[in-house]
SDR family NAD(P)-dependent oxidoreductase (Nocardioides zeicaulis), 249 residues
Amino acid sequence: EGLLAGQVAVVTGGASGIGLATTRLLCQDGAKVVVVDLDPEASQAAVAELAGAGHDVRAEVVDISSEESVAALARGVLEEEGRVDVLVNNAGINAAAMTLWDTPPEVFEKMWRVNLFGTYLMCRAFVPTMLEAGYGRIVNVASVAGKEGNTGSSAYSSAKAAAIGLTKSLGKELAGTGVICNAVTPGVIRTPLAMRTTPDHIQRLAAKIPMGRIGEPEEVAEIIRWASSPRCSFTTASVLDASGGRTTY
Ligand code: NAD
Protein backbone atom coordinates (compact mmCIF):
# COMPACT_ATOMS: atom_id res chain seq x y z
CA GLU A 1 0.00 0.00 0.00
CA GLY A 2 2.64 2.53 1.08
CA LEU A 3 5.16 4.02 -1.32
CA LEU A 4 7.94 2.06 0.42
CA ALA A 5 6.03 -1.17 1.06
CA GLY A 6 8.40 -4.14 1.05
CA GLN A 7 11.45 -1.91 1.28
CA VAL A 8 14.11 -1.84 3.98
CA ALA A 9 15.47 1.50 5.19
CA VAL A 10 18.47 2.16 7.41
CA VAL A 11 18.39 5.49 9.26
CA THR A 12 21.46 6.54 11.24
CA GLY A 13 20.78 8.79 14.19
CA GLY A 14 17.21 7.59 13.75
CA ALA A 15 16.37 7.77 17.44
CA SER A 16 16.31 11.56 17.84
CA GLY A 17 15.49 14.83 16.13
CA ILE A 18 15.49 14.85 12.32
CA GLY A 19 16.34 11.13 12.23
CA LEU A 20 13.39 10.17 14.43
CA ALA A 21 11.03 12.33 12.35
CA THR A 22 12.40 10.56 9.27
CA THR A 23 12.00 7.12 10.83
CA ARG A 24 8.35 7.94 11.53
CA LEU A 25 7.64 9.02 7.94
CA LEU A 26 9.44 6.06 6.35
CA CYS A 27 7.46 3.73 8.65
CA GLN A 28 4.25 5.48 7.58
CA ASP A 29 5.24 4.87 3.96
CA GLY A 30 5.45 1.16 4.70
CA ALA A 31 9.20 0.61 4.95
CA LYS A 32 10.80 -1.69 7.46
CA VAL A 33 13.19 0.63 9.28
CA VAL A 34 16.44 -0.25 11.00
CA VAL A 35 17.32 2.57 13.38
CA VAL A 36 21.10 2.83 13.80
CA ASP A 37 22.01 4.97 16.78
CA LEU A 38 24.59 5.27 19.56
CA ASP A 39 21.98 5.98 22.22
CA PRO A 40 20.37 2.75 23.53
CA GLU A 41 17.61 4.45 25.57
CA ALA A 42 16.50 6.74 22.76
CA SER A 43 16.62 3.80 20.33
CA GLN A 44 14.47 1.71 22.61
CA ALA A 45 11.96 4.53 23.00
CA ALA A 46 11.76 5.02 19.22
CA VAL A 47 11.20 1.31 18.63
CA ALA A 48 8.60 1.13 21.42
CA GLU A 49 6.69 4.06 19.93
CA LEU A 50 6.69 2.83 16.34
CA ALA A 51 6.40 -0.91 16.92
CA GLY A 52 3.57 -0.05 19.31
CA ALA A 53 1.86 1.73 16.42
CA GLY A 54 2.15 -1.45 14.35
CA HIS A 55 5.23 -0.56 12.29
CA ASP A 56 8.07 -2.89 11.40
CA VAL A 57 11.08 -1.31 13.08
CA ARG A 58 14.11 -2.37 15.07
CA ALA A 59 17.24 -0.72 16.41
CA GLU A 60 20.95 -1.44 16.25
CA VAL A 61 23.17 0.38 18.73
CA VAL A 62 26.20 1.21 16.62
CA ASP A 63 28.87 3.91 16.43
CA ILE A 64 28.91 4.81 12.74
CA SER A 65 32.44 6.19 13.03
CA SER A 66 33.85 2.72 13.80
CA GLU A 67 34.87 0.72 10.74
CA GLU A 68 34.46 -2.65 12.50
CA SER A 69 31.05 -1.76 13.93
CA VAL A 70 29.73 -0.60 10.56
CA ALA A 71 31.04 -3.73 8.84
CA ALA A 72 29.35 -5.94 11.46
CA LEU A 73 26.14 -3.92 11.14
CA ALA A 74 26.08 -4.33 7.37
CA ARG A 75 26.69 -8.08 7.61
CA GLY A 76 23.89 -8.44 10.16
CA VAL A 77 21.36 -6.31 8.29
CA LEU A 78 22.01 -8.00 4.95
CA GLU A 79 21.85 -11.44 6.55
CA GLU A 80 18.58 -10.66 8.27
CA GLU A 81 16.82 -8.49 5.69
CA GLY A 82 18.53 -9.56 2.48
CA ARG A 83 18.21 -6.05 1.06
CA VAL A 84 18.59 -2.36 1.81
CA ASP A 85 16.69 0.04 -0.41
CA VAL A 86 17.14 3.27 1.52
CA LEU A 87 20.09 4.59 3.49
CA VAL A 88 19.67 7.85 5.38
CA ASN A 89 23.00 9.08 6.77
CA ASN A 90 21.64 11.46 9.36
CA ALA A 91 23.69 10.78 12.52
CA GLY A 92 25.78 13.80 13.38
CA ILE A 93 27.30 15.76 16.20
CA ASN A 94 28.07 19.40 16.84
CA ALA A 95 30.13 21.15 19.51
CA ALA A 96 29.88 24.40 21.41
CA ALA A 97 30.86 27.41 19.31
CA MET A 98 34.64 28.01 19.36
CA THR A 99 37.12 29.66 17.05
CA LEU A 100 39.36 27.47 14.95
CA TRP A 101 42.39 28.42 17.03
CA ASP A 102 40.58 27.36 20.21
CA THR A 103 39.50 24.04 18.71
CA PRO A 104 41.53 21.12 20.10
CA PRO A 105 42.65 18.50 17.55
CA GLU A 106 40.53 15.82 19.29
CA VAL A 107 37.38 17.91 18.82
CA PHE A 108 38.19 18.64 15.19
CA GLU A 109 38.96 15.01 14.45
CA LYS A 110 35.87 13.67 16.23
CA MET A 111 33.63 16.02 14.26
CA TRP A 112 35.06 14.73 11.00
CA ARG A 113 34.97 11.09 12.13
CA VAL A 114 31.25 11.13 12.86
CA ASN A 115 29.91 13.68 10.39
CA LEU A 116 32.03 12.70 7.40
CA PHE A 117 33.89 9.42 7.93
CA GLY A 118 30.78 7.71 9.36
CA THR A 119 28.81 8.66 6.25
CA TYR A 120 31.61 7.31 4.05
CA LEU A 121 31.71 4.02 6.00
CA MET A 122 27.94 3.55 5.78
CA CYS A 123 27.87 4.29 2.03
CA ARG A 124 30.79 1.95 1.43
CA ALA A 125 29.07 -0.81 3.40
CA PHE A 126 25.66 -0.58 1.71
CA VAL A 127 26.27 0.63 -1.85
CA PRO A 128 27.37 -2.81 -3.19
CA THR A 129 24.05 -4.45 -2.29
CA MET A 130 22.15 -1.54 -3.86
CA LEU A 131 24.22 -1.88 -7.03
CA GLU A 132 23.45 -5.60 -7.13
CA ALA A 133 19.75 -4.84 -6.80
CA GLY A 134 19.97 -2.03 -9.34
CA TYR A 135 18.03 0.20 -6.97
CA GLY A 136 18.81 2.38 -3.99
CA ARG A 137 18.25 5.77 -2.45
CA ILE A 138 20.90 7.42 -0.27
CA VAL A 139 20.27 10.67 1.57
CA ASN A 140 23.09 12.38 3.44
CA VAL A 141 22.09 14.99 6.00
CA ALA A 142 24.63 17.81 5.75
CA SER A 143 23.98 21.40 6.89
CA VAL A 144 23.81 24.96 5.65
CA ALA A 145 26.98 25.30 7.74
CA GLY A 146 28.69 23.28 5.01
CA LYS A 147 27.69 25.86 2.41
CA GLU A 148 28.22 29.09 4.31
CA GLY A 149 30.56 28.24 7.17
CA ASN A 150 29.31 29.34 10.56
CA THR A 151 31.41 31.46 12.89
CA GLY A 152 32.79 29.31 15.69
CA SER A 153 32.13 26.18 13.68
CA SER A 154 35.20 25.37 11.57
CA ALA A 155 35.24 21.66 12.45
CA TYR A 156 31.51 21.11 11.90
CA SER A 157 31.22 23.39 8.86
CA SER A 158 34.19 21.80 7.12
CA ALA A 159 32.96 18.25 7.82
CA LYS A 160 29.51 19.15 6.44
CA ALA A 161 31.06 20.79 3.36
CA ALA A 162 32.98 17.57 2.82
CA ALA A 163 29.76 15.55 3.17
CA ILE A 164 28.32 17.66 0.34
CA GLY A 165 31.39 16.92 -1.79
CA LEU A 166 31.08 13.21 -0.99
CA THR A 167 27.41 13.28 -2.04
CA LYS A 168 28.19 14.95 -5.36
CA SER A 169 30.99 12.49 -6.18
CA LEU A 170 29.05 9.40 -5.13
CA GLY A 171 25.89 10.57 -6.91
CA LYS A 172 27.84 10.89 -10.15
CA GLU A 173 29.66 7.58 -9.65
CA LEU A 174 26.27 5.87 -9.25
CA ALA A 175 24.45 7.77 -11.99
CA GLY A 176 22.62 5.41 -14.33
CA THR A 177 22.81 2.41 -11.97
CA GLY A 178 19.41 2.94 -10.34
CA VAL A 179 21.11 4.10 -7.16
CA ILE A 180 20.54 7.76 -6.36
CA CYS A 181 22.40 9.84 -3.79
CA ASN A 182 21.46 13.31 -2.60
CA ALA A 183 22.21 15.59 0.34
CA VAL A 184 19.83 17.64 2.44
CA THR A 185 21.04 20.83 4.11
CA PRO A 186 18.94 21.82 7.11
CA GLY A 187 19.19 25.30 8.58
CA VAL A 188 18.42 25.74 12.27
CA ILE A 189 16.01 22.99 13.30
CA ARG A 190 14.34 22.45 16.68
CA THR A 191 16.12 19.26 17.85
CA PRO A 192 18.11 18.26 20.95
CA LEU A 193 21.34 18.85 18.99
CA ALA A 194 20.52 22.44 18.02
CA MET A 195 19.18 23.21 21.48
CA ARG A 196 22.48 22.18 23.10
CA THR A 197 24.24 25.30 21.82
CA THR A 198 23.55 28.57 23.66
CA PRO A 199 20.13 30.25 23.19
CA ASP A 200 22.05 33.38 22.23
CA HIS A 201 23.79 31.55 19.40
CA ILE A 202 20.50 30.08 18.19
CA GLN A 203 18.91 33.51 18.22
CA ARG A 204 21.75 34.93 16.14
CA LEU A 205 21.28 32.12 13.65
CA ALA A 206 17.48 32.48 13.61
CA ALA A 207 17.81 36.19 12.88
CA LYS A 208 19.36 35.28 9.53
CA ILE A 209 16.36 33.18 8.44
CA PRO A 210 14.08 34.98 5.93
CA MET A 211 11.06 32.99 7.17
CA GLY A 212 11.77 34.45 10.61
CA ARG A 213 11.67 31.17 12.49
CA ILE A 214 13.64 28.01 13.03
CA GLY A 215 12.45 24.79 11.37
CA GLU A 216 10.81 21.66 12.75
CA PRO A 217 12.35 18.19 12.32
CA GLU A 218 9.28 17.06 10.33
CA GLU A 219 9.92 19.78 7.74
CA VAL A 220 13.34 18.30 7.00
CA ALA A 221 12.08 14.73 7.21
CA GLU A 222 9.54 15.44 4.43
CA ILE A 223 12.39 16.19 2.01
CA ILE A 224 14.31 13.11 3.12
CA ARG A 225 11.12 11.08 2.62
CA TRP A 226 10.86 12.25 -0.98
CA ALA A 227 14.56 11.72 -1.71
CA SER A 228 14.26 8.22 -0.19
CA SER A 229 11.44 7.22 -2.51
CA PRO A 230 11.09 6.10 -6.14
CA ARG A 231 9.44 9.50 -6.75
CA CYS A 232 12.94 10.96 -6.66
CA SER A 233 14.09 9.72 -10.06
CA PHE A 234 15.94 12.46 -11.97
CA THR A 235 17.61 14.21 -9.04
CA THR A 236 21.00 12.93 -7.94
CA ALA A 237 24.28 14.37 -6.67
CA SER A 238 22.09 17.27 -5.57
CA VAL A 239 21.80 19.38 -2.47
CA LEU A 240 18.23 19.90 -1.25
CA ASP A 241 17.84 22.86 1.08
CA ALA A 242 15.62 23.11 4.17
CA SER A 243 16.58 26.40 5.75
CA GLY A 244 13.60 28.76 5.50
CA GLY A 245 15.28 30.70 2.71
CA ARG A 246 18.60 31.21 4.48
CA THR A 247 20.63 29.54 1.77
CA THR A 248 19.19 29.53 -1.71
CA TYR A 249 21.61 27.24 -3.50
P1 NAD B 1 20.09 14.92 17.42
O1 NAD B 1 21.20 15.07 18.36
O2 NAD B 1 18.70 15.18 17.86
O3 NAD B 1 20.13 13.44 16.81
C1 NAD B 1 21.31 12.87 16.34
C2 NAD B 1 21.30 11.38 16.64
O4 NAD B 1 22.52 10.83 16.13
C3 NAD B 1 21.26 11.07 18.14
O5 NAD B 1 20.24 10.14 18.43
C4 NAD B 1 22.64 10.49 18.41
O6 NAD B 1 22.64 9.47 19.41
C5 NAD B 1 23.02 9.91 17.06
N1 NAD B 1 24.48 9.80 16.90
C6 NAD B 1 25.41 10.72 17.20
N2 NAD B 1 26.63 10.24 16.97
C7 NAD B 1 26.48 8.97 16.50
C8 NAD B 1 27.38 7.95 16.10
N3 NAD B 1 28.71 8.13 16.13
N4 NAD B 1 26.87 6.78 15.69
C9 NAD B 1 25.52 6.56 15.67
N5 NAD B 1 24.64 7.49 16.04
C10 NAD B 1 25.10 8.68 16.47
O7 NAD B 1 20.47 15.80 16.15
P2 NAD B 1 19.63 16.41 14.93
O8 NAD B 1 19.58 17.87 15.13
O9 NAD B 1 18.40 15.66 14.66
O10 NAD B 1 20.70 16.17 13.78
C11 NAD B 1 20.55 15.23 12.75
C12 NAD B 1 21.46 15.64 11.60
O11 NAD B 1 21.05 16.90 11.12
C13 NAD B 1 22.92 15.79 12.01
O12 NAD B 1 23.75 15.28 10.98
C14 NAD B 1 23.10 17.29 12.14
O13 NAD B 1 24.42 17.69 11.93
C15 NAD B 1 22.17 17.76 11.05
N6 NAD B 1 21.74 19.15 11.19
C16 NAD B 1 21.00 19.54 12.26
C17 NAD B 1 20.62 20.87 12.35
C18 NAD B 1 19.79 21.39 13.49
O14 NAD B 1 19.63 22.60 13.59
N7 NAD B 1 19.27 20.55 14.36
C19 NAD B 1 20.99 21.78 11.36
C20 NAD B 1 21.74 21.34 10.29
C21 NAD B 1 22.11 20.02 10.21
User: Anything to note?
Assistant: The longest strand covers residues 179-186. The first helix runs from residue 17 to 28. Strands lie at 8-12, 32-37, 57-61, 86-89, 136-141, 179-186, 239-242.
